[in-house]
Amino acid sequence: MNKNHILLSISMLISGRDEMEKCLNSLLYFKNAFPTEIILVDTGCNAEQRALAEKYADKIIDFIWCNDFAAARNAGLKEACGEWFMYLDDDEWFENPQEIIRFFITAEYKKYNSASYVVRNYMNMEGTLYTDSYPSRMVKLNSKIHFTGRVHEYLTPFEEPRKEFNDYVHHYGYVYQTEQEHIKHAWRNIKLLLEVKKENPGQPRWIFQLAQEYFSVHNYEKVVETCIAGLEEWKKYRNQLTYAPVHIGTLYGYILLSLEWMGRYTEEEEWLKKAFAEPLNKLDAMEVCLVFYDMIGARTYGYLNEDERCLSYFQKYIGSQKKVKNDRSAMETKTAGIITEVFNELLLAETFMTCIPSLIRCEKIDIIKQTIEKIEWDKRSIFLDEDKLKKILHACCRMQYCSFYVDLIQKLVGEDENIQQLYTVVNRLQKEFAEQGDAEKLQNLHHIIGSLSNQHFCITIAKILWKSEENEETLDKYYEELVSKYPDAIFEIDDDVWKIAVEKKIKVASAMNYVDYRVWRRALKRMECWASAKSWNTWKQRLSGWMEADDIRYKLFDMRYTEFSLAEEIKNFMETAGLEEKLWAYAESVISFYKPYYKEEVLEENSVGLPDEMQLALELKKQQEYYESGQDRKALENMKKCLGIYPKLEKVMLAYAEMVRNRMQQQLTEANEAQKELQQMIISLKNIAKQKLESGETVAAKAILSQVQQYAPDDDEIKTLLHNLEEEVQ
């Protein structure tokens, strides 16, 4: 290629990343359109990757890695022969760069000294979350152009006039396969930045870059420490430095957001005042930093529930969007680090969520309506959590009811993806309002939730509680909806709902009797995950009045109730007999429940195909038989078979096994003690018999020895004494 005709030199470091081929292929847009050279700096490719690179490159430079990105970049820059120079990474690729191509083929490039395009930094592999940045990547070549910085290197000088392109590259470099990979990458950069910072004391660029790395791995304490120390160091050396004022604003930005994410809002407020008091704010270069501070002010006072201040800062922040957000030049030249994120859609949405309670209490419905249109609601699961939803709903409930609140909560919840989150929040608020005895807030809560269009039992519950004063016929349809649509959640429904049913004489029992057994079983399984003893006992009493004793669903409930009771009361059983009595009754109920559905031979074999509780019940039945027939040894052996069958009652069975072992040990101990006492008695009686013989009372002696022999038939001494007595008689 004739170097006199090269318009653009594209340089890239290559290390064999997976995206390298995609990146190289995208550079053909330029090579096929106008004279372009591709210069690759090889920092660590294997043979296969090197062969691929050679298919695209005009020049490949071997570079021995020395932990210095600027040095590697300068090696490529040194070989550039084009009128213009561009650089990128081997994990970036262009998306049809027609603006840049026109820039060169129309000779527009002659009017400019530099240019920037968009780098779309993705936050997930799906490509649905991303932020756009505008790094300085293209310059007209001259002898002064060079890279500086061992890491986060940059091209300087970057002279005006500057062309701004909307063409962009895809960049997935901030998406990591694992958190360990992310941390490893961050610490590689941190190590290099600590060296650069030491070599350039007080230089805010390297301080904020270091803070940015700590921030990326959520080490917020270290971020605050680094930035505060960095500001002091900058003040010490500032007269000896050439620096960008926005980098000072960036240090304040990292301090503020880190304090917020650690929940230290009072400290954040103090640092916000310091940020606004910074003399550099008078410079035009600090325009976007001030907008960032406004955003932080809105968030800080939103968390502190200082409504008027929150409102004031939020209005400034939102008002700045029209002027600043679309000012590409301002966003490109007056931002750095976290300040660049000031209008990030997720940060905007998160700020809005934090401020909504204050906006509601200040009755600024118009501002909420206007801002709602700016939010990407399909990403609500990222920026909306239970605490924020609770605060918003709480604010709505404390105000006079307004239909807009229904629209707002509907927007927050969406269709159904956040309905479980809403259910949790509603439960928390109901409990809170009930404890406070605040009937008005409760009524507002039920009115708002009951007016939502979502399909969930908490909506139907809210309708019942909201309209509890209406007639029986109106309420009856809500109860029918509750039981027919949401039977698997039946046990989670508030006691107040059932109290209303009793008061209004709603026929709930008949509806319950039609609940499918499989659904009923699922409902009980859910209940086991959350229910307290009080809940179980309440439902036991309730169902006793609703269902007939032979109803299969009631029998299943009774089994689960007994299992819960056994597990709950295991520590209260002081004697084996008390526990055994309950276990025998439980086993009988389980066998009675399942027996009609299995052949007798299957039950006799206790097949592994039987339900776990049935297998346990059959073993417990054997246990009972062994115990009652006095076969203690067999009972102890069979106990082993009762373990490991049914996880739900495993703790109960382990406790029972220990009780059985203890009982047998006690019985054995008592038997041993009785044996000792018997031996003492035998010895004593033998001595008495001997005394009788010595005194000539042979009849009495013989009577004693004959009696003792019944307890010690193998005692040789007794046999000898009796034998001698018989011979004497003869």
Quick structural gist:
This protein is α/β, with parallel strands linked by helices. The chain has 34 helices and eleven strands.
The overall pLDDT, averaged over residues, is 91
Q: How many whole angstroms does the radius of gyration measure? A: 42 Å
Number of strands: 11
Question: How large a portion of the residues is in β-strands, by DSSP E?
Answer: 5-15%
Look at the helices and sheets and give the structural class: alpha/beta
Instruction: Please report the first level of CATH classification, the CATH class of the domain at 1-175.
Output: Alpha Beta
CATH topology tier name of the domain at 1-175: Spore Coat Polysaccharide Biosynthesis Protein SpsA, Chain A
Regions with little confidence, pLDDT below 50 for 5+ residues: none
Instruction: Sum up the overall morphology in one term.
Output: elongated
By DSSP (H or I, 4+ residues per run), the number of helices equals: 34
- Cα(first) to Cα(last) distance is 143 Å
Q: How can the largest sheet be summarized?
A: 9 strands, mixed
Helix content: 55-70%
- Which architecture of the domain at 1-175 does the CATH hierarchy give at level 2? Alpha-Beta Complex
CATH superfamily of the domain at 1-175: Spore Coat Polysaccharide Biosynthesis Protein SpsA, Chain A
What does this molecule look like?
- Helix 9 (245-261) runs antiparallel to helix 10 (265-277) and helix 17 packs across helix 19.
- Helix content is 62%, strand content 8%.
- The mean pLDDT is 91.
- It is an alpha/beta fold and 730 residues long.
- Strands 1, 2, 3, 4, 5, 6, 7, 8 and 11 form a 9-stranded mixed β-sheet that branches. Strands 9-10 form a two-stranded antiparallel sheet.
